[in-house]
Amino acid sequence: MPLILVTSLSHMPDALRTYRPSHLVTLLSPEHMIETPAGFPPERHLRLGLNDIADPAMGEAPPAARHIAQLIAFGRAWNGEAPMLVHCWAGVSRSMAAAFTLLCDRNSTGEELEIAQAIRARAPFAHPNRLLVRLADEALGREGRMSRAVEALGPGRPVEEGVPVELPLDLLHA
User: Could you name the CATH architecture of 3-173?
Assistant: First the structure.
């Protein structure tokens, strides 16, 4: 079953060994960006240097449309035969927004709220970065449905770091 695995940076090495993903997405601040893990194919590692901010005026290196375009293209090149591992610093905000984007891109328009709710059911701490979601919503032509879906969830349960979460591509029927 095609699977997106969301983790924090600290859980990423164990997840690489356990799940043996074919693709890896890293969403970290530019100053904390990691190199491709030893033995992992660099062409299958998308490294997005962006800060976890929801307002582009509030800091340096905010999420931008180019980041979303890269994520969507990378996700579409993944055949799903092996898992895709998506991580950020804590596994709560940027990585959850990226996973939500990938899931929405692979599922039907109109299922955004159900996808967001299914993510929250598996990860009560999930709090997808609102700016990343807004940019993805625009890129995927979802007419605000993705943004409204994460707003309807409200904030996730406060945690310093999330635990690894398995999100099947067919999340609504898993």
Answer: Alpha-Beta Complex (3.90)
8 A C-beta contact, residue 81 and residue 69: no
The single residue listed with the structure tokens 């996700």 is 75
End-to-end alpha carbon distance in the chain: 10
Position 160 scores a pLDDT of 95
Residue type, 41: P
Assigned token pair, 130 = 């609102």
Contact between 129 and 93 (Cβ < 8 Å):
yes
What value does the mean pLDDT of the chain take? 96
Q: Are 27 and 16 in contact (CB under 8 A)?
A: no
Give dist(CA 140, CA 146) in Å, integer.
Answer: 9
Domain boundaries, the chain: 3-173
